[in-house]
Design a protein that fits this description.
Blueprint lengths: L1 H8 L3 H19 L18 H7 L7 H22 L10 H26 L1 H5 L13 E4 L8 E6 L6 E5 L11 E8 L4 E6 H30 L3
Antiparallel strand pairs: 1-2, 1-4, 2-3, 4-5
Helix pairs in contact: 2-4, 4-5
Length: 231
Amino acid sequence: MEVLRQIVLSFPVVVFSALLPLVLLYWLLVLLGLAPLELFARDSLKGDHLASTMVALGFAGVPVSFALSMLLGLAGAITLAVELLVLRWLPLGLFRIPVGVAVLWVAFVLASPMAAMVCHGLQRRFHRAKHTQPRCLLGETVQVGSATGAEGWATATLIEDPECEVRLHAKPGDLLCPGERRVLVKYVAGEGAYRSVAESRYCEARVHLRRLRLAQNSRAGVSHKGAEAPL
């Protein structure tokens, strides 16, 4: 028991010792109907928030809470394995903190594609429940099946799940052509429909946003160095 206690309370395992019980408690509340499955979901991918970040990491098609739980679970398993196989046998002393931070980073890097793969395999289960969790479809690519009507309505099917059909509502002037690929970017609850953008336009916006963030980080770094220069 003492060895187990030491492992559970050791850094970086202690991070998951604190987070995973909260995850289990959340899913218990979901099963009891006391917490929503779309806890972290947003109606739109616009802006920097957890939902848009998870979609950018490849977790489109499943609720954010489920994707985050998978990511934490796999990262926790990797961290525990590193602790049992390597860290507990090394006399790290004060170096355990920086080494532990590095292990956490590597664990999430390794866990992200694995968790995304698992979520991708379970997407269709959540697609079938789109009427109860419609926001989990944001970030999915669809193919327009019918031309835009007079009021901008059209139907489309998911590329990765053709049996799943959604309703699209285009803004004035944004024509939806049959066979066109588009990405769902907003759910309008009052209409029970999605707003979408062309797949190429969505990819271009992602690249542009990434460049802006890199430029901002670069300017911040230059400003920071400039402030420290007189010292």
